[in-house]
């Protein structure tokens, strides 16, 4: 379906929206992913008919048949993105085309109907326009947007579903982590294996990481680091975030995309900004034992995680069966990490020129 045949959204305003006073209370301390805006986007897919009946309507529970395929065979994918209130008073998205492209690729891997990329972006924009008053204005705050798709066909046979439901919901959010560096647990659990769904943004990958995340919390860590499933040696990614290492020569190292690691949009943005800023960046395997050795010798100066929710978050220490190692002073954000974070956020929020065409103006 191309842009010419993209169906027009029906706009159905919530008859009982949250009051301005209550919304102001929420925006004063939004937290993360707990309170949702007044509306949601919804589009249905039926085999033979395609995508149909797009609507922006009141946020509310949905009715799902107990035999819906998503409940039994986990055909489900999602995205994470943000809307920002700019210094000029407008509202913009950051690289929504990249989210739409990754969403389509995830659907392909999960044998689901592929949503046209322009329809994906239009659904997000229409929801943001409808709920524009929910976009926070303070630094480090934004409107977190969650597009997702589930298999809704009521059928217990094991096959790709013939009916799907695509939705978009949104939640005002503050910072995912604080300003200080976080501690990370090096897990012995596996997140993804070659030939699996590691590159797809599907709920099953995150469900598989929850035990490791629980274990990390028990060891006083805020996040978890996964190694490869074959040798249990090579660093892959965090529990929903990519990871970068800054060496003593100022260069950056990040694990390569081999099919088991999510193609992070924030990761890709950092690669562009770092290289254009004159930094040497290598996408290459990095072993956990080498990381421990480099940290002990001082060759490893900074480590940071990156993703839509956290943006860029410094890592201060790693803990695991090999013991504990501290990065830098274990607390503060390093100079390279801070510069990359500052430059990225400045582009996202319209406080710096956008030479890449990443910012998509909504209002």
TrEMBL record:
EC primary class: transferase
EC number(s) reported in the record: 2.6.1.42
Biased amino acid composition, Polar residues: 1-13
Catalytic reactions of this protein: L-leucine + 2-oxoglutarate = 4-methyl-2-oxopentanoate + L-glutamate; L-isoleucine + 2-oxoglutarate = (S)-3-methyl-2-oxopentanoate + L-glutamate; L-valine + 2-oxoglutarate = 3-methyl-2-oxobutanoate + L-glutamate
Cytoplasm recorded as keyword: no
Pfam families associated with the record: Aminotran_4 (PF01063)
Biological process according to GO: isoleucine biosynthetic process; L-leucine biosynthetic process; L-valine biosynthetic process
Keywords assigned: Amino-acid biosynthesis, Aminotransferase, Branched-chain amino acid biosynthesis, Pyridoxal phosphate, Transferase
Entry's family note: Belongs to the class-IV pyridoxal-phosphate-dependent aminotransferase family.
Entry protein name: Branched-chain-amino-acid aminotransferase
Organism: Novacetimonas maltaceti
Phylogenetic classification of the source organism: Bacteria, Pseudomonadati, Pseudomonadota, Alphaproteobacteria, Acetobacterales
């Amino acid at each position: 379906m191309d842009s010419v045949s993209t169906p027009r959204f029906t706009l159905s305003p919530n008859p009982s929206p949250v009051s301005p006073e209550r919304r102001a209370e929420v925006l004063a301390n939004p937290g993360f992913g707990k309170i949702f805006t007044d509306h949601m986007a919804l589009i249905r897919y039926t085999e033979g008919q395609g995508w149909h009946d797009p609507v922006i309507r009141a946020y509310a529970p949905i009715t799902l048949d107990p035999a819906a395929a998503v409940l039994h065979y986990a055909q489900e994918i999602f995205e994470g993105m943000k809307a920002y209130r700019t210094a000029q008073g407008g509202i913009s998205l950051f690289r929504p085309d990249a989210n739409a492209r990754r969403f389509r690729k995830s659907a392909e891997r999960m044998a689901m109907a592929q949503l046209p990329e322009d329809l994906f972006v239009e659904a997000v924009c229409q929801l943001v326009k409808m709920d524009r008053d929910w976009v926070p204005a303070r630094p480090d705050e934004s409107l977190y947007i969650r597009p997702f798709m589930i298999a809704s066909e009521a059928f217990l046979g094991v096959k790709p579903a013939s009916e799907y439901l695509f939705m978009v919901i949104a939640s005002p959010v503050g910072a995912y982590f604080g300003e200080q560096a976080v501690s990370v647990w090096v897990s012995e659990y596996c997140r993804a294996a070659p030939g699996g769904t590691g590159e797809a943004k599907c709920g099953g990958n995150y469900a598989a990481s929850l035990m490791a995340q629980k274990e990390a919390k028990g060891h006083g860590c805020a996040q978890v680091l996964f190694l490869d499933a074959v040798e249990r040696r090579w660093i892959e990614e965090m529990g929903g975030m990519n990871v970068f290492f800054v060496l003593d020569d100022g260069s950056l190292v990040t694990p390569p995309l081999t099919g088991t690691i999510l193609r992070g949009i924030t990761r890709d943005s950092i690669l562009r900004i770092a290289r254009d800023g004159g930094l040497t960046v290598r996408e290459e395997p990095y072993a956990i034992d080498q990381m421990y050795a480099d940290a002990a010798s001082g060759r490893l100066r900074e480590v940071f995680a990156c993703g839509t929710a956290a943006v860029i978050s410094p890592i201060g220490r790693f803990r695991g069966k090999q013991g504990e190692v501290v990065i830098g002073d274990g607390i503060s954000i390093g100079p390279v990490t801070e510069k990359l974070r500052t430059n990225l956020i400045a582009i996202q929020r319209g406080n710096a020129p956008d030479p890449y065409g990443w910012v998509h103006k909504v209002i």
